[in-house]
Amino acid sequence: MKGTSRSFFALAISMTLLSGCSTHKASDSTDLSGRTEPVSMNSVVFTDYDLNRRWSRGFGYLEDGERYRLSLVQHGQRPTSAGTTEVYVVLRNHTDFDYQVEARTQFFDRDGVPADVRPIWQRLTVPANSLETYRELSTSTQPLQYRVEIRELGR
């Protein structure tokens, strides 16, 4: 009887753990929908799969709702006093630790052809539970479009 109750207890515990795992939405790294879309101008792209991934009621979360590590608050471009273009991206860190990322901006002319200088990755630290702004200046005075890529530092 004692052995049966232990087996039943172990089974109940394992079923409880497994049922908690079944509510976790499994990620599909083979989903190519975002990776095969045409390049859109005046946009921001997270090139790391896990950086802007959404978790919905996963293990450790009791309430419903999505969870992010890093999210995009806003982005845009504006002219500078020198006549060049400044691109800005405001990022929000949803974690309890500082998040280090790299960002780069590719400028394009009106026809969608890469213009200006070759993009260089710049390091950026987004403080825990806070906002940080990434900025990049063009070297041309011509009207330009942009595409910003963001990745986790070290990837």
Automatic annotation (TrEMBL):
Signal peptide: 1-26
Annotated keywords: Signal
CDD domains per the UniProt record, alphabetical: DUF1425
UniProt keyword Acyltransferase, yes or no: no
Keyword Oxidoreductase: no
Top-level taxon of origin: Bacteria
Pfam families linked to this entry: DUF1425
Name assigned to this protein: DUF1425 domain-containing protein
Native organism: Marinobacter nauticus (Marinobacter hydrocarbonoclasticus)
